[in-house]
Write a structure and sequence with these properties.
The chain has 355 residues and is mainly alpha-helical. The protein contains 14 helices and seven strands. Strands 3-4-5 form a three-stranded antiparallel sheet, with no helix packed on it. It has a two-stranded antiparallel sheet with strand order 1-2.
Length: 355
């Protein structure tokens, strides 16, 4: 940053303060998309988080260009607008952006909206520090109040039925790994073949801040992994069914098959579609298109809840969930309906008398 000289005071001069001028630390990127990639690499975003950051910043790319972000099926394959990152400084943008953000917030859950806003502000702040832009057009956009997390764990019977679904090997392996490891879905989807240690039933992930952490699985996952991997020795673990489109980042392309890494969005869609009748057992199959299924997060939630119900210690739950505080475990340690039923039945005086 340089400081422009102050004009000397004279009879006709008014006192004015020195004006700061930001000098770019490097040449601004050619486009907003390029600025996103520079941010993801330059700001040290962990590999496990980079995919989510890229998706969120792509969504904000439409809004920063003054367009409404596509949602649902329309989002798949939609190409984001191309515009220079300097366009973020347009003085008319904040008002337009506030309207677009409000419209999107009405269609999405509060947690998603708040996460995307936080990611956008982090990127904008980083671009400001590089001297590529001067303004933050998100000022004035407020976070949405998020309802408390009331996610309920799936019962053990529901988990058993889930394993019986007739789905592809990729989904069977992914769902088993999510439940057995209690890992976050984005972490599992970021795994590469070379990150796996099959003999130890564990995998290496990169957490926030670049720290190396481990997830552990059980026999179910260990039995499926060799069939999924085949002879591959490197590249993304979970792949799409088709070859990666042009422009896909190299890290997200399998060098041996040319297929792309499975995205969180697509993995979530597949799980939700396949669990609609499980989530609505009294519904008719003809109504399946109008039903809502389960989310991938419920596998992690269920695993940790079942651990807590089985008496797993707090230190082990913290290590398994990789949370930093006990408070973060509260929403997982809430016993499920089956656990409460067993507790009541075991303490039924009539049942004890019959014994």
């Amino acid at each position: 940053m340089t400081i422009e000289p102050v004009a000397e005071l004279g009879s006709g001069d008014a006192l004015r303060l020195p004006r700061a001028r930001v000098v770019p630390l490097s040449a601004p990127p050619s486009s907003y998309t390029a600025a996103v990639e520079r941010y993801l690499t330059g700001a040290g975003i962990a590999k496990s988080s980079a995919r989510i950051y890229r998706i969120s910043l792509t969504t904000w790319g439409w809004m920063l260009a003054g367009e409404r972000a596509p949602t649902g099926p329309a989002r798949r394959g939609a190409k984001p607008p191309v515009f220079p990152v300097a366009a973020v400084d347009d003085p008319a943008l904040p008002e337009v952006l506030a309207e677009l953000a409000a419209a999107r917030a009405d269609e999405m859950d509060a947690d998603t909206v708040n996460r995307e806003l936080s990611i956008a502000r982090k990127a904008i702040g980083w671009w400001q520090r590089q001297g590529w832009i001067g303004a933050d057009p998100t000022i004035g956009i407020e976070r949405r109040p998020a309802p408390p997390d009331r996610t309920k764990a799936l019962t053990e019977k529901q988990i058993t039925v889930l394993w019986r679904l007739d789905v592809a090997l990729r989904e069977k392996t992914q769902w088993k790994m999510l439940y057995e490891s209690a890992a976050r879905a984005d972490e599992v989807l970021c795994l590469n073949v070379e990150d796996l240690y099959p003999q130890d039933k564990r995998g290496k992930i990169t957490a926030k801040g670049g720290a190396t952490e481990w997830i552990h699985w059980q026999f179910g996952t260990a039995r499926l992994l060799p069939r999924l991997i085949g002879r591959r020795t490197r590249g993304p673990l979970f792949l799409t069914d088709r070859r990666a489109p042009a422009g896909t980042p190299t890290l997200d392309v399998c060098p041996e098959t040319g297929r792309a890494r499975l995205s969180y969005r697509r993995a979530e869609e597949i799980f939700e579609e396949n669990t609609r009748l499980l989530a609505n057992p009294l519904a008719s199959p003809e109504d399946v298109e109008d039903l809502d299924g389960w989310t991938l997060h419920r596998l992690r939630h269920s695993a940790l809840t079942h651990d807590a119900e089985d008496g797993t210690s707090t230190p082990m739950l913290l290590a398994r969930s990789r949370h930093a505080s006990v408070r973060s475990l509260e929403r997982y340690a809430r016993p499920g309906v089956d656990s409460v039923a067993r507790h009541v039945a075991e303490r039924d005086p009539a049942a004890r008398r019959r014994m």
